[in-house]
Amino acid sequence: MSSRNVSTKTTAERLAGLLNTHYAKKTDVSEAISTAISTVYKPGGSLAAESVSNSYLITANEGKVYNLNGNLTLDSTKAAWFVDGASGDVIPSGTNIVVVESTAAYYEETTDTTAQAGTTYYSRSGSEGNYTYTEVEVEDGTDISSEDYYVLVAATYLFDKLAGFIDLSGKADKVSSATDGNIAGLDSNGNLTDSGIAGTDILTASDISDYTENELKALLGIPVDPE
Predict the structure, then answer these.
(1) Which of 6, 178, 200, 220 has the fewest CB atoms nearer than 10 Å to its CB?
(2) Which is higher by pLDDT, 188 or 78?
(3) pLDDT given for residue 48 in this prediction
């Protein structure tokens, strides 16, 4: 059999190159997202639907993003924990929810007539729009009915849904050390692998259209019928 130059079309080779060049790892995408949003949001990890509660709605958790594990159905109580929440709403598993400030902390004049244990009182100075509040030391039980004291009302927080966030659970990983020009394969988890087969080693129908049956068998290692 005469020697032939068997090669594949350039599309297979280009495909391997494009996959290796343009597909990013989940970790790469996650790091890019984390960098972009780190000044606003902080990862809070996975949160089981049945564990969602208002105990998470505190100052220390502001900006924390939780990935919901399991569908969450809101009743009237839970609906009050969410921005635009309504009883009967179902928040699907995989949704990212973030703790956001609902109302900012503010000072208000106290209605206490005697100093209460555990309460911090403030005096106010300055003018409207430019007030300054200074903590004052008052013993518990002291008559403060004639004082203009203020207390700090803590900020309140709610969960908000981040519908625009990307769920990377179905994203395939890129091959870290692929050979240029090789065909991409898939592992059992659906991630990309280097098949070890060069694109130039792939035969197409047009490449072998002028081969005889016996030439093809010989090429594939199949016993050739005697002529």
Answers:
(1) 220
(2) 78
(3) 96
Please give the Cα distance from 58 to 103 (Å, whole number): 12
Residue 134 three-state SS: strand
Parallel, antiparallel or unpaired: strands 132-136 and 121-125: antiparallel
Decide: 146 and 138 in contact? Cβ < 8 Å: no
**DSSP 8-state class, residue 62:** T
CA dist 172 and 31 (Å) reads 15
pLDDT band per the 50, 70, 90 thresholds, residue 8:
very low
Strands 182-186 and 192-198: antiparallel
Query: How far apart (Å, rounded) are the C-alpha atoms in residues 104 and 144?
Result: 27
Q: Which residues pair with 100 in a beta bridge?
A: 158
CA distances from 135 to 95, 124, 149, 152, 177 (A): 42, 9, 9, 10, 61
pLDDT one-digit tens code per residue, 72-97 = 999 999 999 999 999 999 999 999 99
**Alpha-helical regions (H) of 89-223:** 213-220
- Give the three-class secondary structure for 59: helix
Task: Kindly report the pTM of this predicted structure.
Answer: 0.52
Contacts of 84 (CB under 8 A, 6+ apart): none
CA–CA distance, 26 with 59 (Å, rounded to integer): 31
CA 111, 113, 119, 122 torsion-angle sign: positive
